[in-house]
Amino acid sequence: MPPDDAARTARVAFDRLLESEAPALRPLLPPGFADAAERYVGLLLEANRQLNLTRVVEPEAIARLHLLDAVAALPLIDAAGPRRALDLGTGGGVPGLLLALARSSVAWTLVDSVGKKVEAVRSFVEQLGISNVIARAERAEALGRGDLRETQDLVTARACASLPVLAEYALPMVRPGGSLLAWKGPITEAELAAGAAASRLLGGGAPEVHPTGLSALGDHRFVLVPKVAITPGRYPRRPGEPTRHPMA
Question: Phi-psi category of 141—alpha, beta or left, where left has phi over 0 and alpha has psi -120 to 50?
């Protein structure tokens, strides 16, 4: 199916999901969101012919696993009230670019370590005329020791890493009073405990698990980690170290 046709079909499927599964989310979406999201999906699928940006390419799956999965976080994001937010491991821009479309008052930084993916996201931002997004091709460990340290009200991440590894990537960039919001599937008590231990060392609080409340998303859930204190200067460790040797 041509990208534009697939994008239109995904939009129709997303509208059905909102009506049947998530009517409370519809009032949270700004005017024009559906038009912009449809255009973004078309651009994403077109670019995906050359780049490995997403494995989700069927319209029904795009509606559920990209569009609905992203905006399902809006109640938690609105409760946090961020002015500056960063999407870590953004890939082709999910969920960060969709969240930027939904919340234009937030200044979003979309980060990925793969330069070609970031170039694609920059192209999407330009073609969509989005003014509240910048994209950066850097490793999280470098940003956490650089100009973004302790600057973000919110860091989002989907399918990025286990919770203790993600905590070390993200929490150094979060200001005290901000939070990390992770998209997760099934999460074990062992991963939660390890994430909690790592969070304590990094200036974070106890992780909170929030179900999506949407049957269409199955066992997806959100894990919210508050930042309660400044991260000690020794964290994050050198690039690659958090993955090779998780803190807990």
Answer: alpha
DSSP 8-state symbol, 30: P
Residue 25 corresponds to which amino acid?
Answer: L
d(CA 117, CA 44): 11
How does residue 197 score in pLDDT terms, banded at 50, 70 and 90? very high
Q: Where are the alpha helices (DSSP H) in 21-139?
A: 33-48, 59-61, 69-71, 74-80, 96-102, 115-128
Gap between the Cα atoms of 27 and 20, Å rounded: 14
CA dist 152 and 19 (Å) reads: 34
Pairing of strands 221-226, 208-211: antiparallel
Question: What value does the CA radius of gyration of the chain take, rounded to a whole number of Å?
Answer: 17
What is the CATH topology of the domain spanning 68-244? Rossmann fold (3.40.50)
Please choose, from the candidates 209, 211, 208, 204, the residue with its C-alpha nearest in 3D space to the C-alpha of residue 248. 204
Whose CA is closest to 169, among 184, 156, 185? 156
Q: Is the pTM of the predicted complex or chain greater than 0.70?
A: yes
| Residue 146 CA, distance from chain mean position | 21
For the chain, what is the mean pLDDT?
A: 96
